[in-house]
């Protein structure tokens, strides 16, 4: 998605060869028009999939996910993240490890909002090691519902989450795929396609 | 706001005479069309105020706030909540006590996203004791910016937050004002106006 790539190039801050900070438009300050455009792009990719619910995780997933859910005209559900959990019977729980923060959180979704027959689109802001996406997918399956696909705003393609999700058979649609963050530069997967393939890998 | 009142009556769960659960459309599952309608209502109330930024707090404030920001065509900024804080120079910090959860969080906003001259609309999902709203307002003032107003989705008018914000001189616009939750019933401030005033207090 060209608009998103341009925004990342203009405002993203490369903190290391592993970490990209996009707190001016996605993770702290949020650009609502960009979120709407992101929602439209996800809808164009999943329009044929009879989605019944969008699922994300607090907090940074909520803005892109609510736009997607609005345009699909289905409810949004967001998983809650918590460090410790009092035992509850009425929620689905999965463990999610954050490599960035080096903590394991429990993510929870109330059982009453997911049911057999739901076709769920999972949306998240970042894909790195895939922990959050797998946790959300497991919750969908606990409910007997179907993961229709996984929509990611920014994928760090040099980390292993994407490959693991592909291997597990999930359909993943990432709007910006980052090939590397070395030398303080953001390089997109599409950029290398331009160089190595037939010359037009820079699709939106 | 009539649509919101109807949704609360239809789906809100009165857990006690202090606690209303609205996790089917606002706090866990979210109704995006309702959020859009809420955004429109906030815009109609603050359209003349030259808002430059919307400020909310994670997580449940984000959905109504992003719709408001989208329609006002300004950025959204959400404060982060955390239990302990490593000392940082680049953020504004305020203490916010949650009476419901009996914890005090620190809320933070990066200094680079608020500046003198900003006219900030604060949006939150609930107003009870006013702790979050005051915390956000203090952050705006730390930045030398102006609080143009405070927009609340659901106000528990029987708790003291509204009165405290009024006394402090803030303009508060609450879309649903709950007078009481006794006997498992939701009663709105407007309902009592119907009985005590000229018979038409149930405006949207």
UniProtKB/TrEMBL annotation, chains A, B:
Positions with a binding annotation for xanthine: 20, 27, 156
Keyword Cell membrane: no
Principal localisation: cytoplasm
E.C. numbers: 2.4.2.22
Annotated Phosphoribosyltransferase domain residues: 47-157
Pathway as given in its UniProt record: Purine metabolism; XMP biosynthesis via salvage pathway; XMP from xanthine: step 1/1
Catalytic activity: XMP + diphosphate = xanthine + 5-phospho-alpha-D-ribose 1-diphosphate
One annotated GO molecular function: xanthine phosphoribosyltransferase activity
Coiled-coil features, chain-numbered ranges: none
InterPro entries assigned to the protein according to its UniProt record, in alphabetical order: PRTase-like (IPR029057), PRTase_dom (IPR000836), Pur/Pyrimidine_PRTase (IPR050118), Xanthine_PRibTrfase (IPR010079)
Protein family: Belongs to the purine/pyrimidine phosphoribosyltransferase family. Xpt subfamily.
Subunit note: Homodimer.
Record-linked HAMAP family: XPRTase
Protein name (record): Xanthine phosphoribosyltransferase
Gene source species: Paenibacillus residui
